[in-house]
Amino acid sequence: MAERNETGKDGEVFAREFLIKREYTVLETNWHWHHYELDIIAVKDNELVIVEVKTRSGNFLLSPEESVDNKKIRRIVSAADAYVRNYNIGLPVRFDIITLVKTERGYRVEHIEDAFYAPCR
């Protein structure tokens, strides 16, 4: 497996544990719908929380959260809509981003709640 894929998978495992420690109930990880994927689907305080995980190691041009562009947001929202419809979820939905930057001692973590809203069509 490519080092980039390893870094991403390790970051997702770390983010999942990060959320569990903060009393989120993780329902799914790496949920797929067609060609779209949701990294983490969780529940906290009666909200469905869709979490995009961005992991970086070393130098990078864009900050991890900047890589979640409008195209990526549309894909996440479409997949979240499919998840809500498929499982008949009646909770409000929140979109978060967890950024992880690998350091010598582990990860520098930032949890951005309400990182973006579903765009109007």
From TrEMBL:
Keyword check for Glycoprotein: no
Keywords noted in UniProt: Endonuclease, Hydrolase, Nuclease
Coiled coil feature spans: none
Keyword Hydrolase: yes
Gene Ontology molecular-function annotations: endonuclease activity; nucleic acid binding
InterPro entries: Restrct_endonuc-II-like, tRNA_endonuc-like_dom_sf, UPF0102_YraN-like
Family under the similarity heading: Belongs to the UPF0102 family.
PANTHER family: UPF0102 PROTEIN YRAN (PTHR34039:SF1)
UniProt-recorded name of the protein: UPF0102 protein SAMN05444001_11663
